[in-house]
Structures are given as structure tokens and as C-alpha cells.
Amino acid sequence: MRRADGRRVWWAAVVGLGLLLGSGEASAQACKAPRVGVTTTLGMKYCSDPAFDDAIAKNVQRIRQDIRAQRQAGKLTVYVSTPISPRGGGHVETNVAIAASVKARLEKEYGGVLWAMNPALYDLPDVGGTSAGGGEYMVMWTAVAAGEDGSGKDFDMIHFTGPTDMRAFFGCGKEDVGGCLGRWLESRAAADAKFRQEIADDAAKRQAFIRYYALRASAAYSTGAHDEWNIFVKLNRKRPLGEQVAIWFDGRPASPAEMEVEVSPGYEVR
Questions:
Q1: Given strand 246-249, what is the order of strands in its sheet?
Q2: What pLDDT does 254 receive?
């Protein structure tokens, strides 16, 4: 089997393992107070705290203004989905840096005709001393992705960050990935006392870091990215062939089958 074919089969397997065809109405009991069920324009429901409604609305308008400015400048617009949370052994600060590197690489790769939107730059503010959770963020990002008319016309492509994207950040190739990550970790620890204390000098966290970035460094393992995948699948089902939002994973375009298959939900309540 050729290497490219192997990658296609691997990603198809990831999609297949996450397949969830069932849908249904989320009950009010599914959300724990103060969060309540919020149904978006795409019919996807999330548990969101009403205290964040104003902050979400303001951020949505801010992001739409940024997108509009790029559109008016003649840019193609890309939604970049990169895992940020520490789930599974990831490191937030490292993931934020990876998200920025993927944005920069895409904009360089397409030679200035493209603007890559990095969601990590649009944090919601704390409200009443409480930080926003996944539900609040997905209410916001569903509104952004769908756009004002619910058709997703603000984006030309969504790029899901994968293992190749993350390895490029660490300077790792296809050989000795573990050794490469270990050397990066030691270099970072030498320059960052906080990182050394929290990750490098903690045997369990060090192992989890290496395991995550060697084996799981991908939007495929992100709760929010699962919802983002389903958002764009739903949007593409509403759009005519030839006008669908391009879906890319790990630097390659998804196949027609992948583009129309939903995966298991992340924060969405079904």
C-alpha cells in the first residue's frame, strides 16, 4: 500500500470510529445549573451559562468584523482548528504556540491570498470570576462558522491540525519522533522554569507529554474539534456541490465521504 493511501485509510478509520448517526433533542436535565440548553441556528445544542450571553455576542461581532475586513481585502478565509486544552497530555501554552505556527504556515504557503483565523486569539473573558467552558465556546464558534445567514459563507476552508502540522512545530521528521520530542522538551525546560517544574521534572506528566505529541497530536482527539467537524458537515449539506466549504485534515483535503460524515459529538448535547 502506498504511504498516501495509508494516511487516507487511517483518517477514514478515525472518522469511522467516531461515527454517531443518532440525533435527538437534549432535555433540560442534560445541563447542570447555571448552564441551560442553547440551540444554535444549525440545530446543535450546547450547555451554556446565560451569564456569558453578552460576552459571546460581543465576541461573535468582533470576529465577524475581522472576517469582513479580510474579505474586503480580497483574502480567502480559513478556519483553523487546533487543540488547545491539556486533555490527554497536551500542554496549553505549547498548543497555543502550535496554533499560531499553523496559522503562519498556511498564510505563507498560500502566498498572501489567504487569511487563517486562529480561534485561540479570541478568548472569552471571565464573568463573575468564572471562566467560560466548552459549551460557551461552542455556542460562539457555531455562530461564527454558520455566519449571519446560517450558510457558512464566511469561510472558504476549515483546516484541522494533525500530527504532521504538530511535528513541524517541534522540528521533527518521520524518524526518531520520540527522541526529537525529548530534545525539544529538554531545550524548553532549560529556558522555562515553570515548564521544567510542571512537565519536564514530573515523570508522569513528561511521559504524558511525549505520548500525546508523538501519538495523539491531532484535532481527532479534541472535543471541540469534533463539534467543529460536525458543524462544517452540516453546513456543507446545506450548500450545493461546488460551493461547499473545503475540509482539510493534516495538510490534505478530505475525501467526499469524509466531508459528509459526522463524528461523535464533543460538547454538543444530543
A1: 114-117, 76-81, 157-160, 246-249, 252-253
A2: 94
Dihedral over alpha carbons 42, 44, 49, 55 (to 10 degrees):
-30
Residues 6+ apart with CB under 8 A from 150: 41, 42, 238
The torsion angles phi and psi of 116, rounded to 5 degrees, stand at -100, 120
Residue pair 122/59 in contact (Cβ under 8 Å)? The answer is yes
Give the CA distances from residue 140 to residues 118, 226, 269, in Å, rounded to whole numbers and listed in that order: 14, 15, 15
- Given this model, what pLDDT does residue 30 score? 85
Supply 13's cell numbers: 478509520
pLDDT tens-digit readout, 18-73: 433 333 334 445 899 999 999 999 999 999 999 999 999 999 999 999 999 999 99
For the chain, what is the largest distance between any 2 Cα atoms, rounded to a whole number of angstroms?
56
- Contact, 88 vs 127, CB < 8 A? no
pLDDT category at 257 given cuts 50, 70, 90 is confident
Q: How far apart are CA 84 and CA 123, in angstroms?
A: 11
DSSP label of 19: B
CA dihedral over 246, 251, 254, 259, signed as positive or negative: negative
**DSSP characters over 70-127:** HHHTT-EEEEEE---S-GGG--HHHHHHHHHHHHHHHHHHTTTSEEEE-GGG-PPPPB
Grid cell, residue 172, equals 521533527
